[in-house]
Design a protein that fits this description.
mainly alpha, single chain
């Protein structure tokens, strides 16, 4: 998607940023990314989410003590908005969107987690202090 290419120009290299880019439409590997599964197949693939979440935590650590590039902040906002919206639409009987195999209760839990993690990364605090179930096996800490 051409919309995001301008935002990537100020991103540093690294495995975490590679994962973020793969979770953007129009980039190689999108269909096999968390966002690709959610957008294209209406599936919540937990291990793909955990990869995205671990990349988010890593990016948050990079920018804890300095300003995050505007393009990255916009990307984070857009992704959080899409994921959170998908979880909300999943619970609406009047909407045709449904995440395959997810209960309404699970969607509430995931919505809380997604909101917390993205907000923590943007705001510059450590999201690992929260305790979520299931724990992310890719992040070692007391919280996740």
């Amino acid at each position: 998607m051409a919309y995001y290419t301008e935002f990537y120009k100020d991103w540093p290299a690294g495995w975490d940023f590679d994962i973020l880019q793969r979770n953007s439409p129009g980039y190689e590997g999108f269909r096999e990314s968390f966002m690709g599964y959610l957008h294209e197949e209406e599936r919540w693939v937990e291990d793909a989410y955990f990869r995205l979440e671990s990349a988010l935590v890593s990016v948050g650590e990079r920018y804890r003590d300095e300003d995050m590039p505007r393009g990255l902040t916009v990307w984070l906002y857009d992704q959080q908005h899409y994921i959170f919206g998908s979880l909300c639409y999943h619970r609406m009987d009047s909407d045709g969107f449904e995440i395959d195999g997810m209960s309404a209760d699970e969607s509430y839990d995931w919505a809380e987690r997604v909101s917390y993690v993205f907000r923590a990364v943007i705001a510059g605090y450590d999201p690992r202090v929260a305790q979520f179930e299931p724990p992310n096996p890719l992040i070692s800490s007391k919280g996740f």
